[in-house]
Amino acid sequence: MLKKFVQYYKPHKFLFGMDLLVAFSMAGIDLIFPMFSRSIVNDLIPNGDVRRIVIFSSIILLLYFLKIGFNYFVGFWGHILGSRIEFDMHNDLFSHMQKLEFSFFDNNKTGQLMNRLTGDLNEVTELAHHGPEDLFVSSVMLIGSFILLFQINWMLTLIVFFFVFLTIFFSIRMRRSMTRTFRNVRSKQADINAQLESSLSGIRLSKTFANEPYEIEKFYVANDAHLSSKRDSFKAIAVYTSGNNFFIDMMTLSSMVAGGLFVLKGLINYGDLLAFTLYISFFTKPIRSLIQLTQQLQSGMAGFERFLEVMAIEPTIKDADHAKPIEAMKGNIELRDVSFKYESTGEWVLKDFSLEIPKGKTVALVGPSGVGKTTITQLIPRFYDVASGQVLIDGHDIKDLTLTSLRSQIGIVQQDVFLFYGTIRDNIAYGRPGATDSEIMDAARKANIHNFIIGLEDGYGSMVGERGVKLSGGQKQRIAIARVFLKNPPILILDEATSALDNENELAIQNSIEILAKNRTTLIIAHRLSTIKNADEILVMTETGIAERGSHDRLLERDGLYNRLYHAQFKGYIPDTSK
Ligand code: ADP
Ligand code: MG
């Protein structure tokens, strides 16, 4: 893990090197001062050497001026270094997440993933900036002070060393419980974010059910768990710091007492004792910062570990080494003996399922919800891989094709339309980035939404999404259809595209959909049998598989499930006679 961490410094070698060099110089300047004090007390004052006192202090003054610049450099560029590393990690994590497949997002809540990008990495940045610098400077200070202490008086140094040893021993003992509590805090924080994300995106629903108190309660529980996880971690920190501070205090006290006795016995002189105590006072700073660093290391590494966890997930759905792009797909689709189950549930959704849609034809799937209709639509663009069997396009197993070439030739319209926060123009252009304005408008016209758009105050530049114009379900659906018109794929999948619309809207959109489906291989799923009447083949699915298949007329002739469904749907209603 540390190796992976160090990797992130590589592109910033120069800055990192400069940072350490400057920090090192700062430590050096600090180490000179006690030596200077010692020689003033021991030599210069007894000899009345005013000239050298002035020269020495001028040099020190000069060094202190230099230190202003050094401090600035470490404060500013050191943080820039940390932020650049954070920048790289952010980009890596985000691009990696973009590569991951549907099943990953089935298993991870959006809020938790967002937390990895923000919260977790924040702590890593702190560590990235302060970690190596503190470690380096503190080590230089400690080792430097030790060497100089030994020179002054080795017996006193041993006393000091005893307490340093105690401090280090204690720190290591406390390490494990601290890591555990920090990790717990981070995971509880992720839970809060997940809860927040879910509650806020569903806030309209909660209000509909007047369930705000229930949401507040759920949030309270997550928030409370976070609070108590913090309590545990603060407790661990408090024990740790108070213990360590005690050892440092003991070190100062004992060296003072022992030093005083040494002076009385004539073992050291006043100048030595002065330098000695000054060095010890230096000592406390690097020890404290090393202790702080171990804390930072715990939480930073816990964050980095969670970062690596996601980075380590290899997408299983990716281009095979031998994968070739499929150019100008004709659009023959075949599912051959396909069996499939979702990783998360492990229950078979499809067993030896076969289906063929010749190019340009339309096949409709009907059946109760939960039988696997949507699942079938997700296997064709290879959002999930089949457990056995094959999905073939123009006779090629889709596992032999590149994902980009496959997916760029399949258009999907679903019941829930997702619009990105952005302009209407951008949302339509999503179907084919780089499309010209006239192509976009053309697509909008075909989807029957152009007139509505130009009637808006900002036209195609109107913002949609949470803070933008409010669109009705039918309008959103038309934007989704315009997207697919623009994409112009040979294969079209309509998954209950109009099921959420009222009759009037459905009829209007039906028309655009028929134009869209023309000359494309189409797989359509719909509840309203009136919308699928014209399909070349209709598959009636039940939990046990395909119950019936055939054209509308053929199926009506039989006294089967389709016949019953069809008549049940129209009983008491005026059949759709618009066509
Ligand atoms: P339909 O579209 O016919 O209503 P689906 O294909 O959506 O049916 O679902 C088929 C079965 O697979 C259902 O039992 C459903 O609960 C399950 N399922 C659907 N999506 C997922 C998923 N992402 N993870 C786990 N199980 C799923
Ligand atoms: Mg479905």
UniProtKB/TrEMBL annotation:
The record's SMART domains line, in alphabetical order, gives: AAA
Going by the UniProt record, its keywords in alphabetical order are:
ATP-binding, Membrane, Nucleotide-binding, Transmembrane, Transmembrane helix
Which InterPro entries does this one have?
Answer: AAA+_ATPase, ABC1_TM_dom, ABC1_TM_sf, ABC_transporter-like_ATP-bd, ABC_transporter-like_CS, P-loop_NTPase, Type_1_exporter
* Bilayer-spanning residue ranges: 20-41, 53-74, 142-170, 267-284
Q: Which Pfam families match?
A: ABC_membrane, ABC_tran
Main localisation = membrane
| Residues covered by the ABC transporter domain | 333-568
The protein depicted here goes by the name ATP-binding cassette subfamily B protein
